[in-house]
Design goal:
Largest sheet: 2 strands, antiparallel
Order of helices and strands: EEHHHHHHHHHHHHHHH
CATH topology of one domain: Serine Threonine Protein Phosphatase 5, Tetratricopeptide repeat
Distance between the termini: 66 Å
Shape: elongated
Number of helices: 15
Radius of gyration: 22 Å
C-alpha cells in the first residue's frame, strides 16, 4: 500500500514559561515567531521526500518536501515533522534562505537549538540582510543564556531595519536580563515610539519602572497592556503588583482576580490575591483604569533631545 502524504509524529514541544516578561515575545515566551513566505522564490512541490517516524512506534513515512507542506506542519505545531520536511527541502533548494529560516524556526520549536542555530546561520550566509533570521537566531541564543551573542545579532538587525518593533523589544528584553536597565528602558521606549500599541513592550517597560521604584509611572503602562490584551494573565498580575506597591490593595485584588479570570491555574496570582485580601486597609486613593489607560503613552514618549543624549 502506498503511504499517505500526511504524517503523525511524536512531538517534543518546548514549554516556554511566561513570567510576566516578553518571551515573545513569547517567544520564548508559547507564542510563535512571525512567519513570512518567500517573496521572490517560488515554493513548488518537489520530487524529493522527507523521512519521518515515531520513535520506535511506527515505520518511517515519506512526505512531500515542499515549502507549503513544511509551513502547514509548522502552523499545525507539528514541529518535528516540519523540521524533517524543511531539512529535505533545503537539500533540494540549498540557495533558498527562506527554507533555512523555516528549518531554523521548526528546529527551535522542537527544542533542537544546535540545528536551529546552524540553519539560521546558513540562511544568513545566503542573505546577510535576512532580518527575520537575525531576530529568531537571537531568540535561540537568549534561550541558551548567551545574551552577548544575541545582542550582536539584534544590533545588526537594528542597523538593517531601524524601525522594527520586534528588534527593539528583544533588545530591551536581553539588556534587562543582563541588568542593563537604562539600555533596556531605552529600547522599550523606542519600541513604543514605533508602535504605541505594543502591549508586551508596555508590560516590560512597566516591570523596569516597578523594579526601579517608580510604581506610579508603571501603573498606566500595565493598565494599557491589560486593556489591549485582556487574555494575558501576566498583565493583570503585574498591574496588581504596581497597585499593591502604591498601597491600593482593593484595586490590586481586582487586578489579581482578573489574572485568574484569564488563567484560573495561575498560582502566582492566587498567592498575590490571598495576600492583599488579608490586608486590612483603610480608605485608598482611587485608581481609574480607563483614565490611566488614556494617559499611558505620555509616560513612554521620548523627545528628540533625550534620544540623542542617550546614544
Amino acid at each position: 500500500m502506498r503511504p499517505t502524504p500526511t504524517v503523525t509524529a511524536v512531538l517534543l514541544v518546548a514549554a516556554l514559561t511566561t513570567i510576566g516578561c516578553s518571551k515573545g515575545d513569547k517567544t520564548s515566551q508559547g507564542r510563535s515567531a512571525d512567519i513570512a513566505k518567500p517573496k521572490a522564490v517560488a515554493a513548488p512541490v518537489d520530487s524529493v521526500t522527507a523521512q519521518t517516524a515515531d520513535k520506535g512506534a511506527r515505520p518511517a513515512v515519506t512526505v512531500p518536501a515542499s515549502f507549503a507542506d513544511g509551513e502547514a506542519a509548522y502552523q499545525a505545531k507539528k514541529y518535528s515533522e516540519a523540521t524533517a520536511i524543511f531539512e529535505a527541502y533545503t537539500e533540494r533548494r540549498p540557495g533558498n534562505a527562506w527554507g533555512y529560516y523555516m528549518l531554523g524556526l521548526s528546529a527551535w520549536k522542537s527544542g533542537d537549538f544546535a540545528k536551529s542555530e546552524t540553519a539560521f546561520d546558513k540562511a544568513l550566509s545566503i542573505d546577510p540582510r535576512h532580518v527575520k533570521s537575525l531576530v529568531n537566531l537571537s531568540r535561540v541564543l537568549i534561550d541558551q543564556k548567551r545574551p552577548d551573542e544575541a545582542i550582536n545579532r539584534l544590533t545588526r538587525a537594528a542597523e538593517i531595519d531601524p524601525d522594527s518593533v520586534e528588534v527593539q523589544r528583544l533588545l530591551g528584553r536581553t539588556y534587562h536580563t543582563q541588568g542593563r536597565t537604562d539600555e533596556a528602558e531605552q529600547a522599550y521606549r523606542r519600541a513604543l515610539e514605533l508602535n504605541e500599541r505594543d502591549a508586551w513592550s508596555m508590560n516590560n517597560l512597566g516591570l523596569i519602572l516597578l523594579e526601579t521604584k517608580r510604581a506610579e509611572e508603571a501603573l498606566p503602562l500595565f493598565a494599557q497592556a491589560v486593556d489591549l490584551r485582556k487574555e494575558v494573565p501576566e498583565f493583570h498580575n503585574n498591574l496588581g503588583m504596581a497597585l499593591e506597591h502604591t498601597r491600593r490593595f482593593k484595586a490590586a485584588a481586582t487586578a489579581y482576580s482578573g489574572a485568574l479570570t484569564a488563567d484560573p491555574r495561575y498560582e502566582k496570582a492566587k498567592q498575590n490575591l490571598a495576600r492583599v485580601e488579608a490586608v486590612k486597609s483603610g480608605p485608598e486613593e482611587p485608581f481609574d483604569v480607563q483614565t490611566a489607560t488614556k494617559d499611558a503613552i505620555e509616560h513612554v514618549e521620548i523627545s528628540a533631545d533625550e534620544e540623542t543624549a542617550s546614544r
